[in-house]
Amino acid sequence: MSSIEEEKKDSAGLIERMAEALELQSEAESGQKEAKLPPMPWCGADIGGTLVKLVYFEPTDIENSNTPTDASVEPGTLEKIQRYLTSTTAYGETGVRDAHLQIENVQVLGHHGTLHFIRFPTYNMSQFLDLVKDKNLSSVSNTLHTTGGGAYKFESDILETVNMQLVKADEFNCLIRGIHFVDRLLPNECYYWNNPDPLDNEASEKVPYDFKNPYPYLVVNVGSGVSMLAVRSHNDFERVTGTSLGGGTFLGLCCLLTGCETFEEALDMASKGDNTRADKLVRDIYGGDYERFGLPGSTIASSFGNMHIKEKREEACKCDLARATLVTITNNIGSIAMMAAMREGIERIVFAGNFLRTNPVAQKTLAYAMEYWTKGTKKALFLQHEGYFGAVGAFLENVGYTDDRSPSPDMERKQTVTKAPVISESSSKEQLTNGSVENHIEASTAEDVSL
User: Where is the composition biased (Polar residues) (predicted)?
Assistant: First the structure.
């Protein structure tokens, strides 16, 4: 099949996805008129070990709504909550709304509105609860749909402080549901790096990937720790392996080695460093390439392998140590993911989680390693909303969304897509065709925890 024919096929597939959602919309609207709606505000939370992620639906038509939900809410209360959450991108000293990730024109149970994505450090949970109490957010709903380990850890504190009951949902179920729901809203949610080079930003290019028929795939959720799930259908998935060496390890080691205090500071230092001043390379051992096994001299033979030499320690700066830490953690994750995919007979590997937030170095390191070691037969795939999928899944539990197999009839967003390439899985040297996609979302979210 020619590249032009492939492009037409890809475009037709994406347009078909949008048409399916539009076709079902009118039927859904008529069917939900008599339905009893959950009380607003509609939101979902993923309470992780490092960050709390919150997804909030802002209705833009609430003033004209006559739904049962509105009748049960004190006039003006929802507007006050909405105004507070959407009028700023910062809450206190550490809360952040990722405005660049918001999804507009979403239809949820008869309401049109915007999905907002908010995060704050888990260690500031007490301040968040004080804020909820101060703003009287619990006056409109006494339940909060949650997922993540913190839903158990902080359950009593939340009940005692703001008198809200937690409705807990399975973490992995929320993750998978969240991924597929957002992908239906944004067909270019998934992407890969073409010509990935961690050292050359100009050489690398972000390219949309058509995730319409993804099964089976391996999702690698990189938070404080790492969990890897083999996903064979919307309701058939299992955790197949993981590692304790994740984003929390990177941040902890950077704090010890460099004196930094935040994830952002650690990433900034890593972006300026050179890991080869700390790592022992193949050329340090063989004087060049190890040709018998096809190992270039630039391949890392031992992470931090030069740090036992006093002169090397004196040459390496803190930024070099941060970079070496980042590369060490990332390479380990990529290696385990590749072996897990081979064992499970899976071609697609999707990396998610907030370790990848504003972290192109880690993304490109994963992408480069995956291409190199598989000779181009596997691509490292990434997602725009990286660490928010668990919270999205909790939000779906809140509004009663149940069908994970087809485009949602009552939750739909129009997205203009000209083309998204499909990567051949059989060719060892793929010919990648770049596409143009109209999308205002750039990659960047929050720090997460998997387990």
Answer: 424-437
